[in-house]
Design brief:
The complex is a heterodimer of chains A (458) and B (177).
Chain A lengths: L1 H5 L13 H35 L25 E3 L20 E8 L8 E6 L5 E3 L1 H5 L5 E3 L5 E4 L6 E8 L5 E17 L5 E7 L10 H9 L1 E6 L4 E5 L7 E4 L5 E6 L2 E6 L4 E6 L4 E3 L11 E6 L5 H4 L12 E7 L9 E4 L1 E7 L2 E7 L5 E7 L6 E5 L14 E7 L8 E3 L11 H30 L2
Chain B lengths: L3 H23 L2 H17 L1 H5 L4 H15 L5 H6 L4 H9 L11 H13 L2 H12 L4 H8 L3 H18 L12
Helix pairs in contact in B: 1-2, 1-4, 2-4, 4-9, 6-7, 8-9, 8-10, 9-10
Classes of the chains: A alpha+beta (458), B mainly alpha (177).
Chain lengths: 458, 177
């Protein structure tokens, strides 16, 4: 074979085309330039993608005016409620990853018809931030309390007996464990307006019976009142207050109304009883927010379940849809306001004469409404998105365990919702999108380069 | 490019041999010039890497062969445009006069070139490198970017294919892959 090729002469080579080397050099220089530009563009695309995906929210609390550290405890702006609460999103970040700052609302949201797609969410008071309260989800979405000033959330534990309560700082995402002195089932009842005291009910727990909410139900039936002083982290038990069904602090934070049976026991912080107020049959003291700001009367709502305290059925983990009436009983005499109808839940007070409630309209959409107690017109503050956006669009979204930062309500304003700020995407998704974006940029660059080279070579 | 002077010197010195190799691969001078130009542009981009290689010639030869083989993946019109003009060769052979040697005559040359044109690019490349460029198995493997064993097997397949295309060819003693 080698002989065959060896005896085959080459055609005489024609002269190289005119300007051959110059063309090669020009194309080579252009190719190098394009490679550098392409590499720079690809890096720019990657950096841009990372900036877009990661920087918003970042690891700092969201603020209304964009970048800049929030100043915990000294907000510069009046708290706001968005005029429409955002719909369901799986891309919402967590309080741990991206603290939202003080919150105006805490609620459970989602549905679980086919998949467990419930979220425990907080909504920023100073921004349109939405965050998943991951600590709450880790503890089985227990009874929780949003601090009156919206800066923290206190959590029980629905997984069983717990040795501590968990205080989550919404400005930093830090968690503080508050020991209880031994494992007990807990049900959080009320937080004083000055933020110092929390009333909760505690009880030894039977073994889990496999049914949901066994902690809440067991403690509701047998729990003893305890008062937690957050400044010291110590709890004091009030043995006489058992079973403590619901509770609400007086506006000065020095007294507490605790419902035991069909009476509200008025206690001071040492557990001394100063009086009792009868609660009408079939009704209960509105949890946490039942004492009016002027201290003159207590608000009552129908039992959460027909069997009332005896059955242990609370409104915890229950979708908010049933409209009832809101009644009032005087604390020290005088005539209370007339009952108010079409109330799903009492959430707080704008003033002694105006309440903020959850209500539904004819189509079942939940909204937050300001209701004057003198019979004046209602004003809708914000609406929930209860559309068919849950479980991949198969189910309506439901709201439960809704609370507002009660201390912020007197000065709260309603603002345009705008675009929800959900914080940085999950790391895996962010990395995947960044890699995909870089890949697309690189592919486009290579395709463009190849096309130009083909054109240049004729 | 900091070493452009060196690059220019190298290209000026090696362009004739690169054009010859490209012509042996393509069978057509215009296509060969295109192939060499693409190769030299790529060499410009990667000159530092090439200059640091053990053998720049081997590095550039591998680039040229890879560019030739990469033509397989290009569009149909590009492949058609670079196909050798065997009919033109036949015309040229008819004007070439009597053969100088029995095997190197114009008729045999045309037969061989036509047969090469019918081989796959890989088979043609391995035959050109092994027997026309007179590279050993190792050098051919480097140029093709494959193992010596692959070179041997591909050479064997290519020779078998060539024999089927050249029924008048009587193999000699140097056909070992």
């Amino acid at each position: 074979m080698r002989d065959l090729f060896a005896t085959m002469p080459d055609d005489p080579a024609p002269p190289t085309p005119a300007g051959y080397l110059d063309t090669v050099l020009a194309r080579g220089r252009r190719s190098v330039r394009r490679r550098r530009v392409g590499a720079a563009a690809a890096w720019a695309a990657v950096l841009l993608a990372v900036a877009v995906l990661v920087v918003p929210g970042g690891s700092r609390p969201a603020t209304p005016d964009g970048p800049g550290p929030a100043t915990p405890g000294a907000p510069l702006h009046r708290p706001g409620l968005p005029d429409r609460l955002a719909g369901y999103s799986s891309l919402t970040s967590t309080v741990s990853k991206s603290p939202p700052g003080r919150a105006i609302a805490l609620y459970g949201y989602g549905n679980g018809e086919l998949f467990d797609m419930f979220q425990s969410l907080v909504v920023g008071a100073d921004s349109n931030a939405y965050r998943i309260l991951d600590a709450m989800q880790e503890r089985g979405r227990p009874s929780a309390l949003l601090a009156p000033d919206g800066t923290a959330v206190l959590l029980g534990d629905d997984r069983g007996a717990t040795g501590d309560l968990l205080l989550v700082d919404l400005s930093t995402g830090r968690r503080r464990s508050i020991p209880l002195g031994g494992p007990v089932g807990v049900r959080l009842l009320a937080w004083s307006a000055d933020g110092r005291y929390v009333a909760y009910s505690a009880a030894p727990l039977p073994a889990p019976d496999g049914n949901g909410d066994f902690v809440e139900h067991a403690v509701a039936r047998t729990g003893t009142l305890r008062l937690l002083d957050l400044s010291t982290g110590r709890s004091s038990e009030v043995p006489a207050a058992k079973p403590a069904w619901t509770a609400a602090f007086a506006p000065d934070g020095r007294r507490l109304a605790v419902q035991i049976g069909q009476e509200a026991h008025l206690l001071d912080l040492e557990g001394r009883e100063s009086g009792r107020v009868s609660i009408p049959a079939g009704r209960e003291l509105a949890a946490n927010v039942g004492w009016s700001p002027d201290g003159r009367f207590l608000a009552t709502v129908p039992w959460a379940a027909e069997d009332g305290p005896a059955g242990g059925s609370t409104s915890h983990d229950t979708f908010l849809w049933r409209a009832d009436d809101l009644g009032f009983v005087p604390v020290g005499g005088g005539s209370p306001p007339a009952p108010v109808g079409n109330i799903v839940r009492l959430l707080g007070w704008r003033s002694a004469g105006t309440v903020v409630v959850a209500a539904t309209n004819g189509s079942g959409q939940l909204s937050l409404v300001e209701v004057p107690l003198d019979g004046g017109g209602r004003r809708t503050l914000t609406r929930f998105d209860t559309g068919r956006t849950c479980e991949l669009g198969l189910q309506h979204c439901q709201v439960f365990d809704l609370q507002l930062a009660t201390g912020l309500l007197p000065e709260v304003t309603v603002r345009h919702a705008g675009r929800p700020q959900r914080g940085p995407w999950p790391v895996a998704l962010t990395a995947g999108v960044a890699v995909a974006g870089a890949g697309v940029a690189l592919l486009l660059w290579r395709v463009t380069r190849a096309a130009r080279r083909r054109r240049a070579s004729g | 490019l900091l070493d452009e002077r060196e690059y220019v010197d190298y290209v000026q010195a090696r362009t004739p041999s690169l054009r010859r190799l490209a012509h042996r691969l393509c069978g057509d001078w215009a296509a060969a010039d295109d192939l060499v130009q693409d190769c030299l542009v790529a060499l410009y981009r990667n000159w530092r890497k090439a200059a640091a290689a053990d053998s720049i010639d081997a590095y550039v030869r591998a680039m040229l062969v890879h560019a030739y083989l990469a033509e397989r993946g290009r569009s149909w019109f590009r492949r058609v445009r670079t196909a050798p003009d065997v009919a033109g060769l036949a015309d040229a052979a008819g004007r070439a006069g009597p053969p100088a040697t029995p095997l190197a005559g114009a008729e045999h040359r045309v037969d061989l070139l036509a047969a090469l044109a019918k081989l796959s690019r890989g088979q043609r490349a391995v035959l050109v490198l092994r027997y026309w460029e007179d590279l050993d198995v190792t050098q051919t493997a480097v140029a093709l970017g494959c193992s010596p064993g692959t070179v041997k097997s591909q050479t064997s397949y290519a020779i078998a294919a060539l024999r089927r295309l050249l029924p008048n060819y009587v193999p000699g003693g140097s056909d070992a892959p």
